[in-house]
Every structure is written in structure tokens, then in C-alpha cells.
Design goal:
The protein is of the alpha/beta class. The chain is 39% helix and 11% strand. It is built from eight helices and four strands, in the order αααβααβαβαβα. A four-stranded parallel β-sheet has the order 2-1-3-4, sandwiched between helices. β3, α7 (159-171) and β4 form a beta-alpha-beta unit. It is globular and about 65 Å long.
Length: 193
Amino acid sequence: MENAESRLYFASDYMEGAHPAIMKKLMETNLEKTVGYGQDPYTKDAKEKIRKACNAPEAEVFLLVGGTQTNATVIDALLKSYQGVVAADTGHIATHESGAIEFGGHKVLTVPQKDGKISAAQIEKLVKDFYDDANYEHMVMPGMVYISQPTEYGTLYSREELAALSKVCRENHLPLYVDGARLAYALASRRMM
């Protein structure tokens, strides 16, 4: 029987405590007076590290307070007003974000999932069906594809699945957006190496 302590839970990343090194740094800087609203030296240092890691010294970097706000901001920035975002029917933006995406004016176009994942073939069919419909000008246009990696079920897209999704998205001019909420789990997985 699997030890309950070794299980990964994907309900929310806010359910875990902070790493001791983070707590130590917070204690060291707790009484330090800094300006707020991203003008402090720690935020400036983080932005510079991101620019360096991305090899983009002129990039604008904006840090947001949480995943829902990040997803809503990115999706709204990438979509035109008449477009929607395609996601698995179990995807975070379709279920757990309390309508934040649709509140911002973009419909979440759900497709059935298998083990939490959607496929390139589904995206290809959805786009074809959209344009084959004589009334497509009166429907929400698919404008991007959203996936969680790992999914809400804890399953991972393989490199091959990601490459296939990326290919069909590029062919159809659809940005592919990967939710970063649990991305560290995927990056640490042997399956992704």
C-alpha cells in the first residue's frame, strides 16, 4: 500500500506549507522596510533573473498574485473579443476558477478529456467543424488552446502529445497555453526528461 505521505495532491497548490529555506528568508527580511507594488529590490531582482533566463534583456516582466489572475490575464491578452479558449472539460479554467475566464468575456470551449488530457486530433476536428458550419460567423471562434501539465488528474502529456498539440495549434494559428500551476511536477518527472 502506498504511503499517504508520498502522494501528490493536485487539488490546490495553496494547501502546502512553504519550504524551510523560504521561511528562513522570510524571517531574515521580515522587518526590512521596502516599498511595495513591485518596486522593491526583491521584485526587481526576480524580474532581472527572468529576463536573463529567457535571454530577453528588454522584456517587460509582470508578476501576478495568483494562478486565476494569471490565467485570466494571459487568456484575455491573447484572444480577440469574439474568440474562446479550448480546454478539457475537466481543465482548471473550465471547473475550478469560478467563471473567471468567462467573466472576462471569453467563453471556455470544452472538449471531452481522456485521463484529463485532450488530443491534437480533437483540436483539429473542433477547428474543422467550426469552419464547416455555415453559421460559424455567429459562433464563438476557437482562439487558443489551454492545457494543464500535469492535468487535474495528475496525468502528464508526453513529449509526443505536446509536439502534436503544438503542431496542430501552429497550423491553425492557435496559441497553445500551458497552465504553470503544477508545471514543476511535470518538469521533475522522468517522463518529461
